[in-house]
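note to self: dont lose this again. the chain is below, predicted strucutre after it. 336 aa total, dont forget to put it in the shared folder this time
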Amino acid sequence: MFSKEERKIFLEPDENLRILQLTDMQVIDASQRRRPDRLSANEIERWAPENAEKNCYSHIRDVVAQTNPQLIIITGDIVYGEFDDSGRKFHEFTEFMDSLEIPWAPVWGNHDQETATGSESMIEIFQNSKYCLFATETDDIADGTGNYAIKIYRGTKLYRAVYMLDSHGCKHAHDEWARIPKSITEGQCRMIERISHELRAEAGETVTSIGAWHIPTAEFFEAYEELGYKNEVGTKIGVTVPARKGDFGVIMEKASAPSTRPENFLERLKNCGIVGVFVGHHHNINTSVYWRGIRWTMGLKCGTYDYHINGALGGTLITFNAAEVVVNHVPTLIGY
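---
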């Protein structure tokens, strides 16, 4: 049971929480390419509009069936907006997610808002969805759109919270106001602090929570460096380098972080009860590492659009063991 208007999920008193992270589907409709030479002949055939079921939706159905989540979070790049100027694929994806009849919470990636339909039209589609929890709880347009929190209850008791943030970075957004450099802003951090204070007042204690956005912040790469995981192609945690405290995943592309973040960001997240952060963006990185009290996870890419690691597509299951977050990648069982 859930409340779309209040962004609340209700579990049975003894029910365990299962959250499924999906990321970087990047649905492409090759028939809507802006330039004739933008895609190869093979890509035009593979990414034809009628192939969305094979390329994306079948994979989502599979990981949903494997995990049976009560909430799905989507950490950006639902569509590759450059290939959806009509907005048809974005609307189709929203209808598909609603067909699962599971509450789902998306944030923008750096490609979604490239579509010529514009951000306001896309927001309206989210808002008209039956199961989508998308909202904006910040007032300054410099903070972007899609900054909100989801409250999760066990019975009548507030149990967990999920903070969803817009990490910006869509430099080719159709709307000029949406072309914000990739970052998490001070205003967004203050939103988390404000809501955390409200949740603490309701629960009588700090509520254990997670955060989710699209582009990894500098903390991910600081963690790699301190833990001895090289941010370079070929790093396989537990294979090429020793794993610490249940860390896992691979780095198969060189990655970089936004240059700006709120002051004392990590400590402020911890003070708000956040024990895990979940992002996407880098299709060839799917690490999960524990560093300074928080588990930092790059989710498993879902669907075959754009580039990906062969054999490493699916979703990421998030559960809790007491106050600690437990993370498992769930590869799709569908061949591709």
